[in-house]
Amino acid sequence: MKRILINITVLFLLIGTFSSCKKKVDAEYLNPEKTATGSLGKLLSGMYLNKRIHPSYWDYYTFIMPTLALYTQTVGTAPSTEMYIPSLTYSEGRWTDYYAGSSGTDYNYNGPGIMSNYREMQTTYAALSASEQAANLVFLKCAQVVLYDQTAQMIDLWGDIPFSQAGSQNTATRDISNSPFQDAASVYDTLITGLKDLNTYFDTATLSTVITKELQTQDIVLGGDLSKWQRYANSLRLRLLMRISNYDEATAKTEVTTMLNDPSAYPLISDNTYNVELQESPSGLKSDLYDVFSNFSFGPAYLMDTLMVANDDPRTAVYWDTNASGEYKGFPYNGTTADYEGGGYATYDSATFYYNYNLPGVMFTASEVSFLKAEADERWGLGTAQTDYETGITQSVDFYYGINQSHILRSGSWSVLATPSSATITSYLEQSAIAYSGTTTEKLAKIYTQKWIHFFILQAGQSWAELRRTGYPVLQYATATASGATTPPVRLLYPSTEQLYNSANYSAVSARDTRDTKIFWDVN
User: Domain residues of the chain, as ranges?
Assistant: First the structure.
């Protein structure tokens, strides 16, 4: 793992200053430049600048739209022979950004690695005195939540990954060593257990005035609010427990029951004011995705036509722009290249997505929590599934209209869209295809489908994971002609650099390194 562990230039970026974007990102994120060099608070800020957390052109253009959005059918795509063979170069980039990151001044293309950043924080923390460690522990705990979130996403893409021994070059010894791959299920267990401990920490931690002020300055997502960090940790734990619930239902049911039956001890992201989002700073850190949506412009027919338009979904206007004829018309899954080139299909909404510099980096939302609760309610009789299901939809509507209403436009002028009225949302909830009715299987299908609609392209990784876990919505795919790759894979292949630079450890997982080897929680 010599290439993925830590690029030394990233180390200088992290310990150095972030001066590559000074006068822009620094000024607008309360100037972390003014903190001590190599401080834990500054390193926490750096984690958010990873280009797989904030909406970067590179992530969307090379990975989200041509791979994840294609597999989840949240983009209309022209057919091709190798459409289901992801670029190994671009997927390696996703892998490298988790471990090492890359240096540079443009955060559309570069940013600190998640693992490298965290290891550097551990090293910085270890060098402190006992009293300083006690005071500064909160920075490490917040970073741990982000690390766990991103680690789970890596597992969901690849399965077994290097974890506990990864990042050796950012430890105190600055040692370079190859890291073994760890069993994905065991790493998930580590994350689930660790998040429970983090709930206790955030519930009981007390901070000095100095540390409180620094955390508020450096925590550019949650503003140093420990109650929000507690909600984030618990909501992430709920996600991971439900993710393994078909693989180890007994554990998931026991732990989720404990959480949902005691909301005061396990507070969750219960409404949109607690959402975990990286808000942009458009003159410094901006979601300039115009070129992305210029190349991946058409909406898919099943999502747009069959699910949204046909059922008067109140999110239709905030998701899509009509075609030149004023119609919401999506590109069909089995459309031809000629159809695609002929155009005439609806596109992503201009003000919400296309021209919006202020599209947030979405880490967790209340809507997802509500749908997770609804699933647990329905399967295990824990609460009122219909209430949580309908709440999830309402929160999703509010969330997307909030993005539209906070847009900062690259160019052009579009009116802000008003949030649909309660009556409009109620009417949608009463549509026969949407109403919470039917058998348990039918109700769960509605929960899963609504969560898929909510994830959309902003959380495409979560969308693909849940699509594989639940099997919903039931999608039809065009058949590619490439041998052995006629349909989407169920996991990504490891980067070639692992085979080259970490060959001994790669050999232990090489037999499972196929596009058809399911992630452990995928037991459908």
Answer: 2-291+355-512
